[in-house]
Amino acid sequence: MKFLLSFLLVSCSVLSYSQDWELVQVDSTLKFRFEYAINFKNQNDSSSYTLKKIDSLTADNSFHGLVRDNNGNPVPLARLLFKNEEGLVKQVKTNLNGEYSITIPPGKYEITCLSMSHDVLRFTIEVKEKEQFELNCNMGLAPELIIYRLNAVDKLSEGELLEIMNCIRANREDPYQACSVLGSYYVTIKN
Question: What is the pTM of this model?
Fold first, then answer.
């Protein structure tokens, strides 16, 4: 029984993690008083990095590595920004194979990895004299750009919202026809 309850809790949290909804406004002068905004996250949207110190005989401080998506594919032309405490920024772009290399002076850096259609990855590291690192970034996908609007006569429960969101996900061609209930709520794409 404990296992089943744990499984259900994990399943529910995974289900709600891949989508966001927000009650945008309540206007009592309108028939459809409650307006919700719905946005779907991509299934593969978590970003991470691995950092490995490398023994080297050279005297410079450097980083090299790969930027990939969560499927292991290279992310060409991703930018890595190295911003120190004084606000100075050095940056490098990955090549078509997702590879990069950069030399930086010692210091504490906020490193930001950016790429079109991917989430931003940001973290901090301190670089000492003559340290070299292999830094590999795995980029998760950014949220989808389409935002759906759901207008309802009455306030909806989270269960009702999840059911409507599942309908929208399955009927993206025409969510208005497939997911609206006459007199109760309707779905449109927000402009």
Answer: 0.59
